[in-house]
Amino acid sequence: MDRAFIEARITSTKAQIVAYEDAATALASGVQSYTLDTGQSRQTVTKLDLNAIQNTIDALYNRCATLEARLNGGCTTVRPDW
């Protein structure tokens, strides 16, 4: 993959993280439903979706870390310190 492609994916992933975190914050602060617009899709979520939203946020952070490691020639695995 070329550098420009990976940078574009990182930017897209970060935008999705912001969208999902905004939805989680709104729902946690008392909003009954929230229209989540990731730029790729629109969906209405409720407090019942908070667990799925958090799982998606975690997955997006992992994707972002992996893409940044690819971009910078790094590694995302950690070796034990013992």
SSE inventory with pairings:
Layout: H1 3-28, E1 33-37, E2 42-46, H2 50-72
Antiparallel strand pairs: 1-2
Helix pairs in contact: 1-2
Description:
- A hairpin with a 4-residue loop joins strand 1 (33-37) and strand 2.
- The protein contains two helices and two strands; from the N terminus they run H-E-E-H.
- By secondary structure, it is α+β, with helices and mostly antiparallel strands.
- The protein has a two-stranded antiparallel sheet with strand order 1-2.
- It has helices spanning 3-28, 50-72; strands at residues 33-37, 42-46.
- The chain has one domain.
- The N and C termini lie far apart (35 Å).
- It is 60% helix and 12% strand.
What's the Cα radius of gyration?
A: 15 Å
Any idea how many domains? Answer: 1
Any idea what the shape is? flat
**Helical content class:** 55-70%
Spans of at least 5 consecutive residues with low confidence:
none
SS-derived structural category: alpha+beta
Write a concise keyword list for the protein shown above.
about 80 residues, alpha+beta, two-stranded antiparallel sheet, flat
Describe the structure concisely for a colleague.
The protein has helices at 3-28, 50-72; strands spanning 33-37, 42-46. It has 82 residues and is of the alpha+beta class. Helix 1 runs antiparallel to helix 2.
